[in-house]
Design brief:
Elements lengths: L6 H9 L28 H10 L5 H13 L3 E4 L6 H11 L6 E4 L6 H5 E3 L1 H14 L14 E3 L1 H5 L8 E5 L8 H11 L1 E3 L1 H4 L7 E4 L8 E4 L2 E3 L5 E6 L7 H4 L3 E4 L5 H12 L1 H6 L1 H11 L6 H12 L6 H11 L10
Parallel strand pairs: 1-10, 1-11, 2-5, 5-10
Antiparallel strand pairs: 3-4, 6-9, 7-8
Helix pairs in contact: 2-4, 11-14, 14-15
């Protein structure tokens, strides 16, 4: 007698792409479209636009951004991971029709010089040696120094231009203890000096250097870089450390609170559509309940909703286990 395969087993067969049985198959052909935020087959411009359009700032964030823009001061944005601190910068740049955001991710080893510029002295010396070796009898000219100087994100943001650039300094609280104070003079002066260009002979006043966004080389006169329109600087922090008072008083400070239920529903709709919003009320409520017991990021919610509403939905028992794993608090002990 033929046996009928249980419905749950058939559903498992439909959902599992990787089966773990060691037998090759073409299961990837059934893989649905990726979540919008994990698509890499589009241009960087399209992805930045989508990121900007999906953000929903509250009224306080809008007010503080405007204050920073009017006062030409950096905006220090503090909040839990996943609350949209970084996305705010892309939203501002998109709405104001500015050039792409300049991004400076901070680590414990980041220095002010890395943000301003980098001079590849070894590369220039190597090219000089190659020229001399190719024509030992000739008086080979030194390579153009501008080809070996690249402005960092902060340095590029401080170039003179009629409209400001948006600069995102991400997770400054990860930095060495001195970096916030090191930034003060640059923010106050609106510029900096490149000593390697300042020392050049009088007959070489102008040098064209490279920028962090790899666009056309830009002229720098006598090593001086100074903005005409102060950049819109958005600095993010997860609140893992305190900053010096001298740094804080030069910033406009914004604390981003976790999104409300309505804001979360708006975010879900912006990323996944109206139908996903209508089907995700229970997951949003579970997310909010879990937030009272630990740190959760909005992208964890989006991941859980995508699995529950995408074309190939897991069986209910698997979905509940996956939801439990995906909505695990970020500050929970252990990795599992």
């Amino acid at each position: 007698m033929a046996t009928t395969e249980p419905a749950s087993a058939a559903q498992d067969e439909t959902w599992f792409i990787y089966r773990g049985d060691g037998r090759p198959h073409d299961g990837l052909e059934r893989l649905p479209e990726p979540p919008p935020w994990r698509r890499f087959d589009r241009s960087g411009t399209d992805r930045r636009r989508d990121r900007a359009l999906s953000y929903r700032p509250d009224k306080n964030a809008v007010k503080m951004v405007n204050a920073a823009v009017y006062l030409r001061r950096p905006l220090l944005v503090t909040g839990r991971p996943g609350t949209g601190k970084s996305t705010l910068a892309y939203n501002v740049a998109y709405e104001l029709g500015l050039e792409p955001v300049l991004y400076w991710p901070i680590t414990s080893k980041s220095t002010l010089e890395q943000g301003l510029y980098r001079y590849d002295a070894i590369g220039r010396l190597h090219e000089t040696s190659l020229r001399q070796a190719a024509a030992p009898a000739a008086d080979a000219a030194a390579p153009d120094i501008g080809r070996f100087i690249r402005l960092g994100p902060l340095g590029t943001a401080l170039l003179p231009r009629p409209r400001p650039r948006v600069l995102l300094i991400d997770e400054l609280d990860k930095s060495d203890i001195d970096l916030p104070n090191d930034l003060l003079n640059v923010f106050e002066e609106g510029g900096f000096t490149i000593p390697e260009l300042d020392r050049l002979p009088e007959e070489q006043p102008m040098v064209h250097v490279m920028t962090s966004d790899e666009r056309a080389r830009v002229p720098v006169e006598r090593g001086q870089v100074r903005c005409t329109a102060f950049p819109i600087v958005i600095i993010t922090s997860n609140g893992e450390r305190e900053f010096p008072p001298a740094f804080l008083r030069r910033c406009i400070r914004l604390m981003i609170e976790p999104p409300t239920p309505e804001q979360l529903a708006d975010i879900v709709e912006a990323h996944l559509g109206r139908q996903a919003r209508e089907r995700s009320g229970d997951i949003i409520q579970e997310f909010l309940d879990r937030q009272t017991r630990g740190d959760l990021a909005t992208d964890q919610l989006l991941n859980a909703i995508y699995l529950a509403t995408s074309g190939a939905r897991p069986p209910q028992s698997d979905l509940e286990e996956l939801r439990e794993a995906i909505l695990r608090p970020l500050d929970a002990a252990g990795s599992g």
